[in-house]
Amino acid sequence: MPFQVQLINQIAAVGLDRLPADRYVTSKTPEAPDAILVRSADMHSLEIPASVKAIARAGAGTNNIPVKQMGTRGVPVFNAPGANANAVKELVFAGMLMAARNIPGALSFVRGLDPSDPNMDKAIEEGKKNYAGRELAGQTLGVIGLGKIGCLVADSAIKLGMDVRGYDPEITVDAAWSLPAQVKKAASVLEILKTCDIVSLHVPLVDATRHLINAKNIEQAERCTILLNFAREAVIDEQAVLAALESKKLKTYVCDFPTPRLHRHARVIALPHLGASTAEAEDNCAIMVCDQLRDYMEDGNIRNSVNFPDVVMSRESAFRLAIANSNVPNMVGQISTALAAAGVNIHNMMNKSKGDLAYTLVDVDSAVPDSVVASIGATPGVLAVRYLPQ
Predict the structure, then answer these.
(1) Residue 302 has what DSSP assignment?
(2) Neighbour-count burial of 326, counting CB atoms closer than 10 A to its CB (0-12 exposed, 13-18 middle, 19+ buried)
(3) Domain boundaries 309-390, corresponding CATH code
(4) Phi, psi of 163 (to 5 degrees)
(5) What does the alpha-carbon distance between residue 375 and residue 385 come to, in Å, rounded to a whole number?
(6) What does pTM read for this prediction?
(7) What class, spelled out in words, does domain 85-270 have in CATH?
(8) What confidence tens digit (pLDDT) does each residue in 243-291 have?
(9) In sequence order, what are the residues at sequence separation of 6 or more whose Cβ sits closer than 8 angstroms to the Cβ of residue 334?
(10) Domain covering 1-84+276-308, topology
């Protein structure tokens, strides 16, 4: 039977085309969905059917999905890290230029001119001095968070002639390889705020990054005049940023998260969540998560899950088991024992863990009886088990 995939949001057709029609049926209201594709819809209040085996978010952040709850059910939540990185990078520089060159104020000034005034040219010449700005070349940019987006921002800033400092205590090996050699390493958020003219935030929202920019560190900022936040609203303490704008510690705050307190503030440039809002980014995200979903549903491979480890194993047999379990001792031993007791030989096996959760792929040399699958599924600590004959 084809897999039933529920579409909670509209997903780009170029992504859905990656799911063969003879193996996948996509609709908004399937009776018993095997998987869910979502973008920004809030799923926390939804009743997610027990039939769901995977959730794939066509975007990077997964705050709209009950990730922890899904983990306890053995359901991986996939995302598309980096698929919208170029779109966000370009918007960061649009925001940077708007702030550095006082473009919003200049546009407002021009809109306020009277085209019937014979002295319009004179008014323009007299008024433009109020909107003189600064060039980006030669300024120092601080990038906090050196994932895919942060690295792209750093690279483009260097090409524009900026000096770049970067800070990320948890930089990955891949990100480190992608980072231009000209980026100077900073030891802390405070060092970035003290030494950079412009600061751009590119961190996920987790406990450690909530209010990363706060009253204590922003008060010690010495050079930062423009703060850009295209990461998540709560990585800054909004009240502290507003106070810094009033005290002129900050010249401009540019963000993608309008709020009532920021609305119409003279030194705030707030955009309506445009970071990933390009046709290209939507296509890239849809393609990435649909490929990941298909790989998981058909072969049990996990790539880019936010709650389970990456586990990718080439098929060496037509018979495969995929097991999600709690990260507790002797799980692999119990799985192996159950298969051995049924006379099923293990051809290849891979097990990895991530926090409290673990995931195991097992290729075996012969068909696995339903009774053995049920026995493994009933093992204490096993959260979900799937039999995937090719």
Answers:
(1) B
(2) middle
(3) 3.30.70.260
(4) -85, 140
(5) 10
(6) 0.83
(7) alpha beta
(8) 999 999 999 999 999 999 999 999 999 999 999 899 999 999 999 999 9
(9) 376, 379, 381
(10) Rossmann fold (3.40.50)
